[in-house]
Design brief:
Rossmann fold; 23% strand; binds flavin mononucleotide; three-stranded antiparallel beta sheet; 6 helices; alpha/beta
């Protein structure tokens, strides 16, 4: 069973493609998260959870949701993260959460996708050619990731250093509180305002 959250489609694309190739079901978690629906999720195949990376980890509303979710059936769980290039400690946190839930964490894979962090001008949107390049490379990477899952192999990703965990755990809530501000992104009759500039 493939489960995902996606704000702008990157993770949805990867999740649907994995489900299609594994001939498995693919469920968007958004409605369940919104309605706080924690009814049992049962799968006879491994669970595969796909998430974008928000400030070096999976979105906190999503980890909060997963922590309280009941999974029955297969005990294996894989994670797939999409990011703008740095997944931080996402894998480490997912591993620790699902070990506590007595499930077999089977590793995670990272996909470098187009950035979508538009409400702040620190991370400008990418050129069309780079967007296409990233999607194409991710599409190619899917072949080996799906083959490993099919074979029941563990997914391997970059080693996460201790200092990354030490920095990220306190950094994430501070950044989210002071830098991820909805007031930086709003709409007027002139167009959309993203901090210092308008787009029509
Ligand atoms: C609030 C926010 C925080 C983000 N933080 C990171 C980050 O720490 N590292 C990174 O590489 N990309 C970061 N991104 C980029 C997204 O992880 C990336 O574009 C992802 O593929 C978006 O997936 P989606 O289209 O499924 O929502 C962030 C995006 C948003 C909106």
């Amino acid at each position: 069973m493939v489960l995902y959250f996606s704000a702008t489609g990157n993770t949805e694309f990867i999740a649907q493609e994995i489900a299609r190739r594994l001939d498995d079901v693919c469920i968007n978690l958004l409605d369940r998260v919104k309605t706080d629906d924690h009814s049992e999720l049962h799968s006879d195949k491994p669970f595969i959870i796909c998430a974008p990376v928000y400030v070096c980890e999976m979105p906190r509303f999503m980890s909060k949701y997963l922590k309280n979710q009941i999974f029955t059936g297969h005990k294996d769980i894989y994670f797939i993260f999409t990011s703008g290039g740095y997944c931080g400690i996402s894998g480490q946190l997912a591993k620790s959460m699902f070990r506590k839930k007595k499930m077999n964490y089977r590793g995670h894979a990272e996909f470098k996708m187009p950035r979508n962090y538009a409400a702040n001008d620190s991370y400008p949107m990418l050129e069309k050619s780079e967007v296409e390049n990233r999607i194409l490379k991710s599409y190619e990477k899917l072949t080996s990731v799906v083959a490993d899952i099919k074979a029941g192999k563990k997914l391997t990703a970059r080693h996460i250093f201790l200092f990354e965990t030490i920095i990220t755990v306190p950094f994430n809530p501070v950044w989210c509180k002071y830098k991820l501000l909805a007031k930086d992104f709003y709409s007027t009759d002139k167009g959309h305002r993203i901090r210092n500039y308008y787009t029509k």
